[in-house]
Amino acid sequence: MLKHNREFQLVYRKGKSAHSPALVLFYLPNTPFITVGFTASKKVGNAVKRNRAKRRMRALFYGLEPQLAAGSYILVAKAATVETPYAVMEKALRKMAERVGALQV
Fold this sequence. Notes:
With 105 residues, this protein is an alpha+beta fold.
């Protein structure tokens, strides 16, 4: 789990990113294991909406984790994260992971 600001900044600066209408994925293949961080800014909404967005992102990520390569990941919520259907976000996350080269087939 990424916890410190410097860890997030390293992935933001040096990692690859992919965007969808509801999520942003950052990936940096720098570790032999998977580390992950989830963020939702105040643009997403109030605390209830931000926490819901983070819960949904955690569920999406951990469902896809067995197929992901080792490295550091950051999932960033957008305002649409709360309203977008789960199946649509799942498909978008898979496509973004392929784009950044993080999906192991």
